[in-house]
Every structure is written in structure tokens, then in C-alpha cells.
Amino acid sequence: MKKLFPFLKPYRLQLTVGPFFKLSEAVLEILTPTLMALLIDNGVNTGDKGYIIRMGIIMLVIATCGVLFAYICQYSASVASQGFGTDVRNALFKKIGTFSFAELDRFGAPSLINRVTGDVNQLQSAVAMLIRLVIRAPFLCIGGLVMAMAIDLKLSIIFMIVIPLFIFVLFLVMFKAVPLYTMVQKKLDALTLVLRENLSGVRVIRAFAGVKRERERFKESNDDYYLTAVRVGRIAALTNPATTIIMNLAAIAVIYFGGIRVNTGHLTQGEVIAFINYITQILNAMIVVANLVVLYTKAYASAKRVSEVLSADTSIKYGKTSLSSAGSTAVEFKNVSFTYARSRVAAVDKLNLAVKTGETIGIIGGTGSGKTTLAGLIPRFYDATEGEVKINGIDVRDYSEEALRDTVAIVQQREMLFSGTIAENLRMAKPDASYDEMRGALEASQAAEFVDKLENGVETYVTQGGNNLSGGQKQRLTIARALIKKSLILILDDSASALDYATDASLRRAIKESTDGQTVIIISQRVSSVKDADRIIVMDDGETVGIGTHAELLKNCEIYREICLSQEQEDIA
After folding, report:
1. What is the DSSP string of 224-286?
2. Within 445-531, where are the H helices?
């Protein structure tokens, strides 16, 4: 919770001015029933028209000032709440940008999206109500009670009985609702996850006739969210009826006993009307307080979720070492092991490997053999559980983030393009890339052949996720984006899986020609993609089971030979 208070500091003026004017409006509102009582007793009952006009003018001035004060407060609340929400969202986005893959896996993308949007919106409402109502509503309750006691202390005993009962109801609702609101947000996260998977994987779902199954899955998650939300809604829904019943019973009691006090001469008609007006004020203020309890119960749950993200420390801390000139060894794994969170089996186990500068390395193995995990350890998407990963002889943990990103370019398994032009996607790797540089990267990645056919060339707009391009086109563009960076180390993680063999062969030849002196690590399940590498590393269950050239491995590595046989590549020498 403390993490959120600094975001309110820039709006101290609004947080001061807003409540002050709202309190001033409340003071004027408190005075109105008393003025009305004076008007009735001294004007209406006596027939003094002059007095009625004077009091009417005073009440009109008070109402006008009240409107002006309310406007100032409303404006202050808007500035503070919207500014606060914007600052918190920026901070959350910045914080999420520092997370390693381990933290992203722990929170999950749907949950982070809900925290940045829904939870922050809930906090914005809480800040707005803090300025507008948190001071006003209690003041009206207390002020109305004080003014009622000033009119008739004995009749005010009714309030002394009602208010503790009212507070008890609010406390009971809050006690029951707070845990449930947290649960509702978790159910919403789960629902968002299902929705996100369905929208992003709609092609796969339809290809496997899974629409009905996914509909049932969504219905189950949606019903789970619905039942939890209804459960907490039932508790929250009791607040207004319970408080209204309590206050209406108090109003009935005041009218009954007030009539007796008028008959005995202890109260005037105007004072009874004023007393009833104060009852109405207190009633309305109490209902507002009840709603505020519900609002801040939700806000408390949201604040915990937002603070959880802001308080999370990334498991990756960067050093200060800048990029040095290339040494004889580009990448070195020294007794490296890595285990994913909530997993008992090591994805990479006791790996020792040295990759020379300028060498092209192929990494092959079955599904789950640890190939992609190995690739993720080099740019520090994850940190090794044990051992050291070195680049140019320096532990990757000693590099600054900028130096590490400049040193390594990676094309991951899942191609990812962003909405914008092709040129904008390419310039993500190198913002100042010229047209000639983009052209060279497109030709090397075999993307020029289809980009040239597009009406606007590199200025062609790419929709979200590259959905207006084929899988092979997207892969070639992501490879071009990595090539344009011209980093010392290039990692291609199964990045040509959607290409035909002829295009893949052309791509490999072009990459070899365009990456002279660059260390290239090609990860693939295709033998044809790695057979021409200087060395091939064969992985199985996170371990290295063979290292050598294609010909050497065919003779000495049983697993590699089996892979070749499965792909009908046994005759390739």
C-alpha cells in the first residue's frame, strides 16, 4: 500500500483544495435546515414577507456558493484521480519492462493486463471519492448530528442508538467482502486468460474443431467468475437496504417523538422540520458512507494487486560492464544448469560448451531437450540456476542491459510483429537504419521477394501480430529485423520452421554471406538447417550427448543418427 502514496505527491494542491471546498459546501449545506427553520418560525408563522425575502436571498447565495465550491472540488478530483491513474499505469508498465521471463511467468500476462487497466481504474475512483466524499459524508453525519443536538438534545438520543448499529452493519459487510473482492479479481484473471488464448489461437481452435470445447471452457470460467461476483454482490447489496431501513426507522421515531415534543412546547414547527432535514442529510450521508465502504473495499483489493507488481523485484540485476571487443570465445557455458519455477526437472543440466568467435553452431534435439532454454540463457531472459554463462569471457550477469542487448540478437520460435509498417518493425532493432540497410536485411532473409510485390513495399502496414502476413513471411521479417542489428552474436531459434526447404537453404546461404565474422547459433529440429554448421551440438533431456560435424555425428552419435533417419537424411554426408 505504501508504494502508492508517492504517486499522490504531485497532486497535493488538488488533494488540499478539493476537500477544502467540498467541506465548505458541506458547511453551507448544514446551515440550510437551520435557516429554513428560522424562515418558517420568524417569517411564515408571523407573516413577515420582508424576513422571508431576506432569508430567501441568503439561501440563494448559499446555494450558488455551494454549486461553485462543488465545481472546484470536482475539477480538483478529476485532475488528481486521472493524473494519479496515469502515473501508476506508467510506473507499472515501466516495472513490467524490467521483469525477467521468470516474473512474467509468475504473474501471467492476463493478470498483468487486468492490474494495469481494471485495478488502476478502481484506484482512480478511490482517489476521486477521497477528494469528493470522504470528508464531506462524515462531516455531514457529524455536523447534522451536532446541529440536531443543538435543537433538541433529548430527541438526538435516537441518533446515539442508530449510529453504532449503522457502523456495525458497515463493518460486517467490509469484513465479509474484502476477501471475496480479491477472489473476484483472480477469477477475472483466469477468465481473461481463457479469452486471450481463444482470440490469439482462434485458427488452431477452428483447425482442430475445438470451438465447442473452448466454448464450454469459457462458459465454465465465466460461470465461476459470475458465481463469485454474485456472492460478493449479494453481501454488498445488503448495505443500502440495511442502512436505509435503520435510518427510516430513526426518521419515524423522530417524527413520532418530535410531535410529542411540539405538543408539550419544547419544539417549534420549524425546528421539527429542521430536525427532519437533518435526518435526511444524515441518511443520505450514511448511504454515501456505505457505498464508500464498498468502493474502498474493492480499491483495497486492487491496491494490494498493484502494490504486488510494484514491490516485485526482478530476479535479473544487470551489471555495469560495457561491450568489449570480441575475444576468441564468443559464448561459453561452464557447468550450467537451469530449472524452471515450479518444476523439479532441470531443463538444462551441467552444460559445458564453448563457441568460438565467428563460428556457426547448430543445435539440434528432440522436443523438450533444452534447446530454446539454452538460447534464452545467453541474452539473460532467464538466469542460470547454477554455473556461468559468459560472452567474450565476461559473465553475462556483469554486463549492463544495453551492452547485452547490443551484443546479442535473437529470433525466437514464435514470430512476433507489431502493428505498424514493415519499416517500423525493422527499425525496432536499429532506429536509424537506412533504406539500404533494410534492403540488405530483407534480401538476406529472403523477404525481399514478397515485400517488393507489396503495393507500398516497406511502408506496407502490418496488423497486430502480423495477421495480414503468412507464417513464412512473418518469420522472414523477424529474421531481417535481427540481421539489421549486426550484433556480435546472432541466435536463430527454430526461426525457419515455416519455410520450405528451398527457401530455407537460400536463407542459410545468404545468412552465411551476410554474417561474416558474426557468431551464429542456429537452433532447429531440421537436420538440413544445421548440417552445414561448423559444429553441431546434439541435446537430449537438457544434456549434451554429441558435438561434432554432421559427418562425425552420423558415425558417433546414435541420437543424431536417429534424427537423421526420421527425416530421411541418413544419406547426407
Report:
1. HHHHHHHHHHHHHHTHHHHHHHHHHHHHHHHHHHHHHHHHTTSS-HHHHHHHHHHHHHHHHHH
2. 448-451, 471-483, 501-514, 527-530
How does 234-271 read in b/e, with b if 16+ C-beta sit within 10 Å? Answer: ebbebbeebbeebbeebbebbeebbeebeeeeebbebb
**Going along 414-564, which residue ranges are E strands?**
420-421, 461-462, 489-493, 519-523, 535-540, 543-548
Amino acid letter, 145: L
Pairwise CA distance, residues 343 & 349, whole Å:
13
Secondary structure of residue 134 in the 3-state scheme? coil
Task: Give yes or no for a contact between 486 and 320, defined as CB atoms under 8 angstroms apart.
Answer: no
Grid cell for residue 395: 559473465
pLDDT at 286 over 80: no
Provide the 8-state DSSP code for 97: H
482-515 pLDDT per residue, tens: 888 888 888 988 877 767 777 777 877 887 777 7
84 touches 8 (CB < 8 A) = yes
Residue type, 284: N
Q: Which three cell numbers stand for residue 438?
A: 533494410
389 membership: H or E segment, kind and range: strand 386-391
Determine contact, residues 300/178, Cβ cutoff 8 Å: yes
Grid coordinates representing 300?
A: 483495497
62-89: per-residue pLDDT in tens?
A: 889 989 998 999 999 999 999 999 999 9
Helix (H, G, I), strand (E, B) or coil at 109: helix
Q: Which domains does the chain have, with CATH numbers?
A: 2-311 (1.20.1560.10), 329-566 (3.40.50.300)
- CA distance to 66, 153, 173, 214, 294, per residue, from 237 (Å): 31, 34, 9, 33, 9
